[in-house]
Task: inverse folding
């Protein structure tokens, strides 16, 4: 299993319930693909450098996880379908 670090930007208009729901959807998708979450933390609400989908603020969520490489593509495809996730970046840790 490889280790990955994912940074997710969730729209700033999301309520606390919506935010929790989106985070659990991301974590469930990782677990569904036989991944293991090692750390998950919120970095808070921040001003975006430029508007993304008419949002000027976003919640930054950092999730560290272990996963088999081929499953990563499935997770990224699911994230593209989620309207609340503005941007995501997943990097492989060495």
Result:
């Amino acid at each position: 299993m490889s280790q990955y670090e994912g940074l997710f930007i969730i729209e700033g208009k999301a309520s606390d319930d919506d935010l929790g729901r989106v985070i659990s959807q991301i974590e469930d998708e990782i677990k569904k693909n036989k991944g293991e979450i090692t750390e998950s933390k919120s970095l808070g609400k921040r001003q975006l450098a430029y508007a993304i989908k008419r949002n000027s603020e976003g919640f930054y969520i950092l999730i560290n996880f272990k996963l088999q490489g081929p499953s990563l593509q499935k997770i990224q495809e699911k994230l593209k379908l989620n309207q609340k996730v503005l941007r995501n970046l997943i990097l492989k840790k060495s």
Remarks:
- The domain at 2-92 is CATH 3.30.70.60 (Alpha-Beta Plaits).
- Residues 16-32 form the longest helix (17 residues).
